[in-house]
Amino acid sequence: MPQKSIMHWKFRTAVLACLGLVLAILSGAVAGPAQAAGITSVQITAGVPATTAPPNQDTPYFSKTLEINYSGNGPVTLSGSADGTQPFMFRDFLSIETSEGRYGFSTTATCGGAMGQVTPRDVSLYFNPGINHVEIKVYNRCSTQEVGALYLNFEPASPPEVVPPECGTAKFFGVRGSGETANDLSGFGNTVGMMKANLYNQLPGMQSEAIGYPAIPVNPFAYHYSSDYVNSVETGVSALIGALKYFFNNCPHTYAVISGYSQGAEVVNKAYARLSDNERDRIAAVVVFGDPQFNPKQASVDKGDFLRSLSGINKTLLGDRTFRVPAGWASRNQSYCTIGDPICNFSVGNLKAFCTVPALTLACPHAQYSTRNWVSKGATWAAKTVRGLRPL
To answer: Which positions ≥6 away from 214 have C-beta within 8 Å?
Structure first.
C-alpha cells in the first residue's frame, strides 16, 4: 500500500476510534469507577451542615457508633461515596476507633477555609474478621462544624450456615446481663445459666440457645452511655426475635421458655412486647430477674421480696417507662426483684449496695438471684407451666 494511503488509513482509524469513545461516554456505555463485586457500603452520615461553634478538642460535635461484620478479605475503606471512590470531607479532626485502636485524620484546611478533603483511606488494619464495633468522631479545632458524606466500604462476612435446630421437649432462650460475655457459662451468664441448669433437671430433653448481643457493661458516667445502652438492648431484641421466629417456623410442636437477667431482662420484655399473640402462644413461660424496667404494680407477675414503692432504674436514669406485660399474657410471665437490688428497685440507698468491684460482686443483691433461690423458684414455675399447656 502506498505510504500516503497508509497514513490516510491510520488517520481515519484514529478519528473513528475517538468518535466511538465520545459516543460511548454520551450514551453511558463507559462508566466511572465501579465498586468491586461483593463489596458493600454503610453510610455513616449523609452530611452535617456547617454551623459556627467555639473550638472544642475534647468533645466531638459528631459521633456515630456502628457494628460492622467484616469478612477479613480486602480493604475496609473510609470514603465519601457508596462506591468508595470519592474523598471524604470534614472540619477539622476525624477519628475512627475500634477494639484494635484509634486512627485519626486532620485536614490541612486553615480555619475559615473550605472543608479539607482526604482521599479514600484503607483502615482495615483496625478491623478483625467478624463483628467489629466502630465509633466515628469529628472534633472542631477552629470555629466551624461541618462534615460531608461518610461511608465505610468493605466485604461483609458471609452469614453462618443455618443448621436446623433440634426442637426437644422445649427450647430455652437465655439473654445474659450487663457486662457478661459470650465466655460466661456458654453465653448465658451466671444467673440465666443457673436458670437453664435448673430447667434441664425438670424438663429432660430440653434444648437451649444463648442470644448473642453486646450486653455493654454498666457505666453511666461514660460519654454516650445512654445511647450505647439503648443500641445494645435493640441489638439484643432483634437477635432474640430473629431466633424465636426461626424456632417457630422449624419447631411447630415445641414450646419456648425465655429468661433474661438485668439488661437481658429488658431485651426479653421488649422482644415479647413486639410479638403477635399467635407468636406469644408458642412461648410457655417468660422469667426475668433484676429488670431495669421493673413494674411493681403487676401483682400476678411480680415475684420476690422487693419494695412495691420502688420501680426499675431506667425510669430514673433514662426516663423510660416501666414494663407492662401485654394484656392476656400475665399467667405466662414472672418478673423477680429482690430487696436491695437498685436495678429493679431503684433508690439512692439501694444504689450504694450496687457493687462494681469484681471481688465484692457476690455480696450485691443484684447478683444474688440464684443464692436467694429466686432462680430455682422461677425454673420450677416455668417447668410446671410447660407441662400444663396443651400439646401443640
So the answer is: 133, 231, 232, 235, 236
